[in-house]
Amino acid sequence: MGKVHELRPRLPDSEKITINLGYVDLGQIDLLVREGFYSNRTDFIRTAIRNQLDRQNDAVRQSVARHELDLGLRHYTRADLETAEAAGEMLHIQVLGLAVIAPDVPPDLARRTIASLHVLGALSASPAVKAALADRLR
């Protein structure tokens, strides 16, 4: 028999959002899609968002530095939290992107080691950990 390996769950690389658009704006997007400028509505919207973010890049960089945010993916394992607890430290998690608290982190360990949690983007954690940290989320 072959070995069985447990795969770590794959994290999504995006999050679904919903927006409301006026009919004229939507029609113009559909026209551009039909004319072949974009492959679909989502392609148009992603491109528009990226263009705006590029225009505001300097302001974003300055805000990230001013608020001392970790940029991108930040993963907190059970071992990370146990190490902080052993050192008598409390974590102040500040992330712009995706903050992940490992699925094997028990809620009581999260409460004992995470003093504050400020995430601009998305937080991936078990429902129990999210509930345990609800009063520490900004």
Automatic annotation (TrEMBL):
<protein>
    <submittedName>
        <fullName>CopG family transcriptional regulator</fullName>
    </submittedName>
</protein>
<dbReference type="InterPro" id="IPR010985">
    <property type="entry name" value="Ribbon_hlx_hlx"/>
</dbReference>
<dbReference type="InterPro" id="IPR013321">
    <property type="entry name" value="Arc_rbn_hlx_hlx"/>
</dbReference>
<dbReference type="InterPro" id="IPR041088">
    <property type="entry name" value="RHH_8"/>
</dbReference>
<dbReference type="Pfam" id="PF17723">
    <property type="entry name" value="RHH_8"/>
</dbReference>
